Amino acid sequence: MSQYAHLSVADPEFAEASAHLPKSDPTDDVTEMRRRFDSMVKWGHENNKLLSTPTSELRVEEHKMPVDGGEITAKCMISTPTGGSAGPFPLFVNYHGGGYVVGGLSTDEPWLRQICVEQQVSVVDVDYRLGPEFPWPYSHEDSYAALKWRITFSFMQIYPKGSSSAERPPVVASQQV
């Protein structure tokens, strides 16, 4: 077993970062879970020096779209390169992670802005409804509605993507379109 001893030693960068995360007791309070998650995401964004996007090279718009029993928000990021192509650009549709309970439009925003500018893609970040207030299959239905909504526009290619638990909705939505 000693040949694997190195695997039980935390990576130094991870150890340093995790030392700054707030220590807290487990909770079943969804509001408190969301507050803690948002706090952790905010800390990560503020301390990640690799995420820096010139805001002058993209336009950000929020759109409300009707879904069965309510509405959801999608944040659209459109690349506006100085002296570059005017598009059309490929479309990257993002579904944030968070176990269908936490997360939102701010979860992935810094790196989505960065890929919008650096890769010259249009980005749609979908804020699907969260549980337990909206149990499964709401997240999947919202994801499908958002993908269907964006397909009505003209794009070269469409790339749906999810993080963590949200990897499933874009796969299911893509098969339904």
UniProtKB/TrEMBL annotation:
This is Alpha/beta hydrolase fold-3 domain-containing protein. InterPro entries: AB_hydrolase_3 (IPR013094), AB_hydrolase_fold (IPR029058), Carboxylest/Gibb_receptor (IPR050466). Pfam families: Abhydrolase_3. Residues 93-149 form the Alpha/beta hydrolase fold-3 domain. It comes from Hericium alpestre. Signal peptide: none annotated. GO terms for molecular function: hydrolase activity.
